[in-house]
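Class prep. Protein, please:
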Amino acid sequence: MSYLSLIYSVMEYEYKDLFARNRLLLGEAVMSEIARKKIILFGVGGVGSWCAEALIRSGYTELTLVDSDRVTPSNINRQLQATTRTIGLPKVEVLKERLLQINPHANIQAIAKIYSEETSEEFQLDRFDYILDAIDSLKHKAHLFLAASKTAATVFSSMGAALKIDPQRIKVAEFHKVRGCKLAAALRGRFKQEGISAKEIVCVYSEERRENLGAASASNTDENGSFRKAQTNGTMVHITAIFGFTLSGLVIQDTIQKAQ
């Protein structure tokens, strides 16, 4: 065997062994289902980036990442792909590169666009088995809920992860049963006012709400000194990561149930 053939042989062995522990726990049939599921994830920030990593490490291979933002210094405290070396780069591209280092055989699509009413049809939501929402914008989140409700896909969503530090208060509930979350309440109020409803969507959320104790940094302002967002809230990585891991866990549990 040539040296090059030996290298390829080792690489192939390592690939087969990547998910040995997953396969040991879940079995071959479930792992085959996991590899086939098509997932689209909207938002790859503090919640979405960790969700994406967990999905790829769990054996999912068909993943579309959607986010129009670039990495900024204020992302570094909580977003997986954000480092001092990736500042200014598109979040989806940096994250895709990392995920392919975990599984080079994965089919990962990076779409550096914002989801909105105007762009919604471009994403062809009917193609996916799972639609995951980690969008910050109330307006865009509301539209995604309604658009996703018209598909056969299973939908999981993250509510607000800012202003929280207690991991023991993180919960999972169907959207209409989420309590103590201002984002969920605002979404329900919007739907009620417009006389529309979304299908059952399981959400990760927390009732905890703390107050900001420090002043907003310069990184949260534009060149004129104006805030980029209506309100900038403090956020911690252990909370956003748990939200993201919980989203991925919901997908895994659902895949297992459907494979049985």
